[in-house]
Amino acid sequence: MSLKTRILALLAALIVIAATASLLAYRELSASIIERWGKQVAEIQVRYDSARLLQSLEREIGLARQMAQSGTLLRWANNPETTTPTTSSATPSIRQNLTTPGFSSSSTRAATST
After folding, report:
1. How many beta carbons lie within 10 A of that of residue 47, not counting itself?
2. Tell me, what DSSP letter sits at residue 1?
3. Ranges of Low complexity compositional bias (predicted)?
4. Long-range contacts formed by 44-52: CB under 8 A, 24+ apart
5. Helices (H), 1-114
6. Share of the chain above pLDDT 70, in %
7. Same domain for 34 and 76?
8. Total structural domains in the chain?
9. Contact (Cβ atoms closer than 8 angstroms) between residue 94 and residue 62
């Protein structure tokens, strides 16, 4: 074998080794990047879903507190035999809260199914 052939064979072997090492490094690096991005996307989605759920819960709790402080409902709870509770100034605001999109039963079902 001539010296030129030996050098070319050595260079070809070095190129194959370098290409293999580069391919393995690329695979490892891209896998870790994909995993990290997936984790970040999942964390963002969890925070978004938690905030959306928390917002609905806060509205429900606010409405429950408002209803618990309603004199009309308290009087009716103390004497449920009355045919209809008398209205008070708090009742219209409770009705208004019940008609907001967050409190309708159809939007609640739609939000929980997605």
Report:
1. 10
2. -
3. 80-93, 104-114
4. 52/111
5. 3-68, 71-78, 90-98, 105-113
6. 72
7. no
8. 2
9. no
